[in-house]
Design brief:
The complex is a heterodimer of chains A (96) and B (582). With 96 residues, chain A is α+β, with helices and mostly antiparallel strands. Chain A has helices at 21-31, 52-58, 75-87, and strands at 6-12, 37-42, 45-48, 65-71. Chain A has a single domain (6-87), classed as HPr-like (Histidine-containing Protein, Chain: A), CATH 3.30.1340. Chain A has three helices and four strands; from the N terminus they run E-H-E-E-H-E-H. In chain A, strand 2 and strand 3 (45-48) form a beta hairpin. The termini of chain A are far apart. With 582 residues, chain B is an alpha/beta fold. Chain B has three domains: 2-26 and 153-250, Glucose Oxidase, domain 1; 35-145, Enzyme I, Chain A, domain 2 (Orthogonal Bundle); 267-531, TIM Barrel (Alpha-Beta Barrel). Helix content of chain B is 49%, strand content 13%. Chain B has an eight-stranded mixed β-sheet with strand order 1-8-7-3-4-5-6-2. An eight-stranded parallel barrel of chain B has the order 9-10-11-12-13-14-15-16, surrounded by five helices. In chain B, helix 6 links the parallel strand 4 (158-162) and strand 5 (178-183). In chain B, 43% of the residues are buried. The chains are: A alpha+beta (96), B alpha/beta (582). At the A-B interface, helix 1 and helix 2 of A face helix 2, helix 3, helix 4 and helix 5 of B.
Amino acid sequence: MNSNPTCTREVIVKLENGLHIRPVSQIVKVAQKFSCELAIRKGDRTVDGKSILDLMSLAAEQGASLLLEGRGDDAAQAVEAIAALFERDFASDRPE
Amino acid sequence: MEVRRGIAVAPGVAIGPALLLGSEDYRIPQRFVRADAIESEWARFQAALQAAVSEISGHEELAAARLGQQYGAIFAAHRQLVQDPKLIKEIEDLVRQKSHSAEFASSRVLRKHAKTLQDLGDRYFAERAHDLFDLEKRLLRHLLGERREELAQLTSPVVVLAHNLTPSETANLDKKFVLGFATEVGGKSSHTAILAGALELPAVVGVGSFLSEISGAETVIIDGDQGTVIVDPDEETLGSYRESEQKRKTASVRLNLLSPLPSETKDGVPIHIYGNIEFPHEVEHCVERGAEGIGLYRTEFLYLETDQEPTEEVQYEAYARVVKAFPHGPVVIRTLDLGAEKFPTSMQEIIDGTPNPTLGLRSLRLTLHNLPLFKTQLRAILRAATLGDVRIMFPLVSTLLELRQAKMILGDVIEDLDDQKVMFNPKIQVGMMVEVPSAAIMADEFAREVDFFSIGTNDLIQYTLAVDRANPAVANLYSSADPSILRMIENVVRAAEKHNRPVSVCGQMSSDPIYIPLLVGMGLRELSVTPQSILEVKQAVRNLTVVQAREILARARTLDVARDVENYLRGELKKLSPDLVE
């Protein structure tokens, strides 16, 4: 198995329109700053957190529960940063 | 394999790679690249990607500055989308491992993802598919920027698939490379359709929306006989089409041997075959196939092509081109024969917003209402008549008074030209179409006042049987073989003979070989036919004796319904020229 440290966190989509293109775009932008792998899981589907296409194909609607799963050296920071996006409901008043 | 149904507008079959002309005018010229070109193909993709990214960044900044951050964010998402590592990897794999062209790979990958989004069942995400289509277009535009080829600069055979083709685009299609075309929109009487027939390009129009499912470069069959478009045909379909294509080619090679041979019956009676044309370039087909002249030169296109009435010079040039191709044969120019339904905007004021039904202000009636237009055309024809055996023909003459009025205007124009010392031919022959039943019935009287008749069977059948053949519910009543039509034609031929006037048939009827024995039997010695059927008609003539033709006519006269006449004639043609009957 992979010896890299892993880190997981569950988040809930609170956005009214679900995880649409702009929040997805923000996730990817943040995720790409980290070197770790970042998977995002919804139910039994797992997608690449650095691919906007993949994330869009999740079609995560309001209320959906997602599992963030980082694997690599900076996995903890990455998961933390993505979770923060969900927590503040992707408010874009803070520059990324 | 995908079969689409449209409206067949020009016969024949075309098989070849699709050249896609979307409404955005992009296309995929090539699906695969050679192994040694893979690296440069990948480099092309990367360059295009860079160009697309910086273009999107530009939009992003502009939108953010002008409209606000959230609008800029949409373009930021687009920029991320197009740089999505997964997407790029998929495209790279197709280029490197499957030798796809950059265009084909980009298009396939983006369309695949678009489809995934569309299939999610969520309206919001389904609409995001449009973002991907948009990116596809953007990438293709950059990829093709460097080698965007105009339709006129093709170097290999293609089948053109387009949302729409304008008449001028159609007219400029390079016949050397364009095998045929299909369009999403358009109808049977559109100019594009008429042009396709004139260009002899197999064509299907009005297919409905189908281009978005095509990447371009797939093999496509255009069946201009059945009105179908077959995308990615299976082996069996392709095989059967190729086989019939081969048969058609063999038949056309055989028919081509007839080009230099005289058009005469087995017993040596000459039957003159002329061509029906609408566009000056069609004259070349007529010359190639050994026609002896032009029996019907329709002039409508000159008027419909642009919003402005064609000047005398423009008309003179067009007429001169045709006359020069046939310096010795007759060239019969028919004056403007606009139907009531296809008025160019320049003439809308004549009908002044009042309903103008099919039997209304059209053809000769229209030109008699618009004397400046009529006189301009007559001047151009009279001048072109100095170059060869040009003749004038008036369409849709229904009464003697109408004919006399038209001839009087012609007399005025001749006087004007004479006064102005312009070169023209004062001895031009003047004839008329016999296509209204009243004219056919009164042929005996008309024959005294014209130099020749040309029987326009299409309208004659339509008006005699009171049937609009564009209406599918009654189209079965429309038949050249109806006994009433045969009597009408015979009456006209007798009248012409009595007054020693030449008479020809220029409707669709004379282009169908089954009617040749019948028409020859009636005494017709001139036939004006579509350029495509010149050789078939010649073959039908050459396999016939006048005695046989008269016997066939005598037997046909005893049959009282169109269907029986038609079956009988088909049977007779099968005996005389078996290879002309399928």
